[in-house]
Amino acid sequence: MKELDWTSFPTHFVDSKKIKLIHHGMASPDRCIQNMIEMMRYVDSRFSLDLMLVPTYHKEYFAQLEAMAKDLDNVRMLPIVSFEEIIPFSAQYDIGIFLVPPTTYNLKMCLPNKFFEFIQARLAIAIGPSPEMARYVKEYHLGIIAKDFTPQSMAQELNKLTKQDILKYKENANKTARILNAEKEGEKILALLEKVAG
Q1: Per residue, what are the HEC states of the chain?
Q2: Prediction pTM value
Q3: What is the mean pLDDT, run by run of 10 residues, along the chain of 198 residues?
Q4: CATH architecture entry for 6-197
């Protein structure tokens, strides 16, 4: 995805009393979205979570998530936006969260689009111990990694965060967005193709 103009994003500001998390993606049972909602029972009052979920044929599961969200004051389910709007929309948040247990091999080793969209939106990142994402979070100092995939473990890590921590991670995302983007990666692919073509 193309690097966006950092100056057009209000992500240099963090309200220490209202820290906003976002997760977007498919509402599939194997992703255990309910864990992120359950997590909000254990976080400090300064945190809120917005979910932007794409319904699948698992209609009962989606209804379950809606019911769980309605039961908590600090969780909302929002209408989805277009692909082109995901990054600008996400930029109003502080933290992008992806707490998805390894219920399949693909989910265990995943490096999803939303991870890079979080970076391009200049968000701090909160993930479980998913190895591929954790590798980037550690290398570029992008955010926090829970000890396991339980709601309580992630809540514990979130509750440790200070405003200064979040600002630091967001600034690191700003720097990383200039490295991990489609233009830079495309240059690598073109170089490889040219090398193969001789």
Answers
A1: CCCCCHHHCCCCCCCCCCEEEEEEEECCHHHCCHHHHHHCCCCCCCEEEEEEEECCCCHHHHHHHHHHHHCCCCEEECCCCCHHHHHHHHCCCCEEEECCCCCCHHHHCCCCHHHHHHHHCCCEEEECCCHHHHHHHHHHCCEEECCCCCHHHHHHHHHHCCHHHHHHHHHHHHHHHCCCCHHHHHHHHHHHHHHHHC
A2: 0.86
A3: 50 83 94 96 97 93 96 97 94 96 89 94 96 96 97 98 96 92 45 51
A4: 3-Layer(aba) Sandwich (3.40)
